[in-house]
Amino acid sequence: MLFWVIAAILTLGASLAVLLPLAGGSKGASAAGDHDLEVYRDQLSELDRDAARGLIQPAEAEEARAEIARRILRLGNADPAAKAVGPSTTTRLVATVAVLAVPLISWGFYSELGSPDLPSQPLSARLAKNPADSSVDELVARAEAHLAANPSDGRGWDVLAPIYLRMQRFPDAVGAYRNAIRLDGESAARQAGLGEAIANAAGGIVSAEAQDAFEAALKLDPANPKANFYLAMGLAQEGRVPEAVAAWQKMLGTLPQDSLWRGAVEQALAESANKPVAAGEPAKGPDAGEVDAASSMSPQDRQAMIETMVAGLDEKLRQDPRNAEGWMQLVRSYVVLGKADQARDALNRGIAVFGPDSEEARKFTAFATSLGLTATE
Amino acid sequence: MVETGHFALVLSFALALVQTLVPLFGARTGNPRMMAVGGPVAVTGFALTAFSFAALATAYASSDFSVASVWENSHSLQPLIYKITGTWGNHEGSMLLWVLILTFFGALVAVFGGNLPATLRANVLAVQGAIGATFFLFILTTSNPFARLNPAPIEGRDLNPILQDLGLAVHPPLLYLGYVGFSICFSFSVAALIEGRIDASWARWVRPWTLVAWMFLTGGIAMGSYWAYYELGWGGFWFWDPVENASFMPWLAGTALLHSAIVMEKRSALKIWTLLLAILTFSLSLLGTFLVRSGVLTSVHAFATDPTRGVFILCILTLFIGGSLALFALRSSRLTAGGLFHPISREGALVLNNLFLTTATATVLVGTLYPLALEAVTGDKISVGAPFFDLTFGPLMLPLLAIVPFGPLLAWKRGDVFAAAQRLMAAFALALAAVLVTALFVDGASVFAALGVGLAVWLVCGALTDLAVKSGAGSVAPAIMLRRFAGLPRSVFGTALAHLGLGLTLLGIVGTLSFGAEKILSMRAGETIELSGHTLRFEGLYPAQGPNYSEDRGRFALLGADGSTISEITSAKRFYPVRQMTTTESGIKTIGFSQLYLSLGDEATDGSVVVRLWWKPLVTLIWGGGLVMMAGAAMSLMDRRLRVGAPSRRRKPTGAVPSAGLP
Predict the structure, then answer these.
(1) pLDDT reading at A198 higher than 50
(2) What's this model's pTM, rounded to 2 decimal places?
(3) Residue B600 burial (C-beta neighbours within 10 Å; 0-12, 13-18, 19+)
(4) Which of A47, A80, B58, B612 has the smallest count of CB within 10 Å of its CB?
(5) Domain tally, chain A
(6) Where does the record place the Cytochrome c-type biogenesis protein H TPR domain (chain A) (predicted)?
(7) What is the ipTM, given to two decimal places?
(8) Which residues of B touch A46 (CB under 8 A)?
(9) Which CATH number fits domain B1-164: 3.30.160, 1.20.120, 1.10.10, 3.30.2310?
(10) Using CB atoms within 10 A of its CB, is residue A111 exposed (0-12), middle (13-18) or buried (19+)?
(11) Residue A221 lies inside a defined structural domain of this protein
């Protein structure tokens, strides 16, 4: 409401700035000639000063004086002063159009562009309001501000870490879990959460680093479902599907009936029956059509099709080798297919493309190690 | 507040349209009421734009992330000063600053233009309004700083770290004051073309505006150059980067305009040329805005990129440059040429100055646009850098600089080169001595160094000679000389200071390029490095935490002859986590006019750090010279004569003409 009042006042002021000069009395502007005369007069006196200082020779000064005088004489027959005119029909018409144009254009444009109902939202006001009215984002920001001021508050990190995880801010979650473990010590939940954050930050791949965290969690609580689940997932990603299935089966046997993990485990089991890799499938995998085709085929045909796809990827990388994602996908595919030699070969080729000292090579090696593979045999 | 600011911006657009059309129509039909509309509307438009800018700055200062541009270019942890300067550290906000300055200058014309002929004033304000209207439309349709986000994000994306710096807080406003200041000269030129006549008071008005714009542009370029020097960590002060050239071209053309406007003001000559130059200068300012704002360049200035904006600015460019030049072609024949002069005269010297400066502008223009044109046509990316400009721009500048001291010593209308040369004998002797000293004692191998130092000394001494001659040195007693010195017009000081500043800048450039030294090595804590007689000891790397960054500070101790620590130099590598960017904070120690410049490189695994150390002799003179030039312009602005020109209604015009002036 206040906005509309201010907008109306501003519009009124702007319209008046247009209207008043048009409606006001004519001031009888001085003729252009008067202005020129003043300038010429000044030029003459300046010429005198320059001549006195020796900046212009006497003969030239005389010539210049004559030039200026000729200009002054020319002024005599120049145009007379602009007439002071009263309000004519044209003036009234222009005044009406101009004054109307201001509100019409501004309100028209603003209604297209503006968001009049959206109030200003200074950050301090948003963070100061009642927590019950705040969104999750605002609560998190508040907690972050608190932790920026008190970075050694382990409990704060412990609370924030799972929230980050749920908000899919995985790198932040990794940092928060690490801080919580450093400040408040290890616990199965924290280690398992850390592992989950690391795995998700890497796009779902259970790396060696994530495995370490899960194993640390299991040391504290051998029945921790999250750690067991992800470790099995890691096995599946390494191509050790039967072992993964066994681990999941075992979980189903021990998990309480109302555990939320049952659904996840059952789904993973179902997927592992259909697909060689359950999780961590990157976006560039086979498209849905191909997978559908694969699942309705006989096991031999399916294996053949998967091998064709992998061969296709291999071929693509020979054409266009500077594709780090592609190399990692290829290495994993070979591992999944149980072709360790070819996987190692692909890994070495990938490292050769980027050079053994490159960032990518280091990434490849770490990735391969997490799959249980070493670069050179 | 945000939406009120948005509304005020839209209202300013509407007013700019009225400011364009009504006074223009009034001037055509000779209607004083319609002509009078320009003034109040211009002032109101400025007030509304200022309000709008204040609303945006408030949104930035209070981290209102419901505003899209705040979200994109700010972060709640930034220090308050960078939250505020972030307002113009991005495309949308900087365009708003651009029009704010434009309307500010328009309002100044409206307020102080009472002594202008009414039609001229109306036309000037109309042209100014037209420029404003197109830029308001550009902002509202393609780069609206008030675009909102709903729901509002809780945290912003941070301002580009290299822009989180005081230098960048000051540089754009100064540069824009310069760019946009030339819009007034442009508006005056187009107004004169619309009217088909140049009033005698025209030059009186255009010259101070040129001075103001030139002064700010000089400051803006110097500031930008210093910023690049210390913030980018390369130790260079000028890169012939297209963005730098974009500001340098209006400066060169503006310098030419400044000089030709003197001739026009004092002698009513070179009218048509001055008019064209004013149009070209502002066109180059617009071109600069286009180059930087459209994103056709990818360079150190990591700003916005969006093709729709580029096309829009290109249309603005075509409209104003094409339109004004077409108007010039149609109308310039109706303008009368002015005073006569001999080739050897002050006027002649200024024409020569203009020839050199415009040619130099053209070479920079070619060097800047050719790579773009080539890329557009063939797709090849080439870079035209220092070698091109050294070969083209350099040879053009050398003769110009050599004749600079002659100009102020030549008489108007008909000068005497021989007499001027005689007066400059002392300056010439000193310059020659400087050449010999440099060649014999400092660096005998470099002809460039010796001649460069000589030229710089020649410029400085030439400027001082001018002051000495004008206060009557050699012909009158010292007491009288001192009195005459104090009584010299401010503009004489202005000229001398500006030329002196040019000499200082040249000295700084030559000193840095010829006598500088550089060392790059890998250091561990405790090791020392020696360069040009200065010894530094690396004390080690210390981590530190800033408000929105973490840094590794490398501490270095500057050692005296006896091995004691004289002072400490710190250089840092900063990491800004939000943008995942690293910046280098160079460590600079100023010794006299020279500087030790230190920048940290990468840290090796064994704990050693790559350190680059430069010795930059006289480097501060480069920007100090710029400051002196600004002081010269300010001095010239204070000159009494620039305040005259208003007809006094009390006096009868006829009786006031001095009889001595009539033939």
Answers:
(1) yes
(2) 0.77
(3) buried
(4) A80
(5) 2
(6) 144-259
(7) 0.80
(8) 266, 641
(9) 1.20.120
(10) exposed
(11) no
